[in-house]
Each structure stands twice: as structure tokens, then as C-alpha cells.
Amino acid sequence: MGDIPNGYEMRKPSLRQLEAFKAFVETGSVSRAADVLFISQPAASKLLNHFEADIGMELIDRSSNRPVVTERGMRVYEEIDRILSGVDQIGQAIASIRAEERSQITVGVVPGFPANLLSKAAQIVRRERPDISLSFVVRSSEFLSHGVLSRKLDLALIARELDHAQVRSSIFYDRPMVLITPPDHPFAQRKMVSMSDLQDQPFIAFTPGSVTRRLTDAAMTEAGVNADIVLSATTAPNCCAMTAAGLGVCVLSPLFASDHLARLAVVSFTPQLPFHVRAVRPVESRDKRGLELVLRALEKARDGLPGTA
């Protein structure tokens, strides 16, 4: 389709078109996008075609048997994801207004946060305060920080500092990072692995810009080590899955490996690379007692996780 021609006036895309494109990107095919939207495949194709026509931009490369998203398409997707997340929050707010007798507490966590921890914490809250409606939002630390400051989130567990007069902050998790390997890897039998051991070792890294990647890159540079980065992944579950598949070893916080220990070996790592998760919440909250209960439940669930002590 190419660039917008001269004199072209872009038509406003519909919400359904945005939903269709988002579903296509996240599922990888038109047919699965149609399933997500509960419509037929031709209807989904029509929405995608009209979306591209309305904005005058090629978002999907159809030159091969399997259509793929273009680079421009990914940039558009990121904006759509942000916008529709706001729509979801409106829906949550409306649901909260309809059930004013319930206390709504929204907790933000970073991607890869242990699902087992969250579910156990939710069970504890449910037993002690069944009137609390608890919801979890998964986003980056920066996004969650803004959510706390704007009071859209009641609590956030983030991997960064947030020094602000309107925010209370405490350490939620403070353990150095560890090395994870497949169970049959030679490193799995050792008590300690050093940075020098990673020289030329197939290594699975987090994507550039993440906290973990910055810490490991700095440590490798200081030690003069060149690991063989064979794969990069955005989230801890992906890194754990690739490691378990025997594609390489990975350095990460033991907290984020806790849901995957059945398939992995965890080995102490030197030099120690500190990784902090902080609990941040507004100084003034709508339900202070409920919020403190939620935080205590999260801490109790954290203390019960295997491999994180």
C-alpha cells in the first residue's frame, strides 16, 4: 500500500478495526484473530483491509503465504495497545462504580512476575476480606510508576527507584541474581558459577534496555567476558522456557524463575548482581487497611515460594 498519497485525508478508524489489528498481531494469524473476536475469518480480513485503507498505510506484509506485521505495523500496534488499555481501565472503573459496596484494589506488577505468587496472595485476601475486588495489571516499571503517581494504581511492584513525596516505597524482594541452566547442563552440578565461566557460553539474554540486561551487560564488560548471546527475550518466562529447552544459560532474579523450577537448575552466581523489587503506593489510599492486607498477602505468598530465599 505504501505511503499516504498527496492530498489523502485519513478516515478515522473504528474501535472494531483497532481490536482486529491488535488481535492479529497478538495471535499471528487472521483466523485466530477472528476466533478472538468471535467473528468469521472473512469479516476479520475485511476489518484489517479497511483499517489499512482508512489510514493509508501498509501494516501487514502479504507477500508470503503467511502474512506478517510490518515495522510500521508494530509501531501502530504499540499505540493501539496503549489506547485499548485505557479503554479497559474505563470498563474497570464502570464496574467499580456499579459495585460501590466492594473495595477495588488494583495492583501493578512487572512482566514475568510469578503467577503462583499472585494467585496465592489473592487467595489470602479472599479469605480475610471477601469484600475486596482485587485486580492485577502487568506493565513495565515505568508505566506502573506513572500509574501510582496518577493514582490509577493502588500498589505496584516495580524493578526501579521511585523517589517522590506522594509515594511510599519499601523493598519487596532483595536477592542477587542467579544462573539458570537445563538440569543436565554441566553448570547444574556446581555450587557456584563465575562470570568468567560464561566466556563463549551460549547465553540467553533479556532484551536491551531491561534492568536485568543492563546489570548483566555491565558485569560482563567489567569482567571482560564475551558471552555468546544466541537469543534475547522480553520476559522471564520466555527466558526460562528457552533455557529449559537447552538453548543456553541465563542470569536473572530467582523470583522470576520460581514458577519454572521443575524444568531448571538454579546455581549461585558471582559477582553478586543485586536485583531489587520495590512495593510502591500512594501516601494516601482509598482503603488503607485493605491495601495493607494485600501487601501482607503478597509478602506471605513471596515467602512461601520455592527457590527464592
Brief rundown of the structure:
By secondary structure, this protein is of the alpha/beta class.
The average pLDDT is: 89
Shape, per Cα inertia axes = globular
CATH architectural category of the largest domain: 3-Layer(aba) Sandwich
Give a quick account of the main beta sheet: strands, pairing sense, barrel closure.
5 strands, mixed
CATH topology title of the largest domain: D-Maltodextrin-Binding Protein, domain 2
Strand content: 15-25%
Radius of gyration: 22 Å
Class from helix and strand fractions: alpha/beta
Q: State the helicity in percent bands.
A: 40-55%
Strand order of the largest sheet: 4-3-5-13-6
CATH superfamily of the largest domain: Periplasmic binding protein-like II
Instruction: Please trace the helix and strand order, writing H or E for each element.
Output: HHHEEHEHEHEEEEEHEHEHEEH
Q: Flag low-confidence runs.
A: none
First-last Cα distance: 55 Å
Count up the helices.
10
Furnish the topology, listing elements before pairings.
Blueprint: H1 15-27, H2 30-37, H3 41-55, E1 60-61, E2 68-69, H4 71-98, E3 103-109, H5 115-128, E4 132-138, H6 141-149, E5 155-158, E6 167-176, E7 178-181, E8 192-194, E9 202-206, H7 211-223, E10 228-233, H8 236-244, E11 250-252, H9 254-257, E12 265-270, E13 274-282, H10 288-303
Parallel strand pairs: 3-4, 3-5, 8-12, 9-10
Antiparallel strand pairs: 1-2, 5-13, 6-13, 7-11, 7-12
Helix pairs in contact: 1-2, 1-3, 1-4, 2-3, 5-10
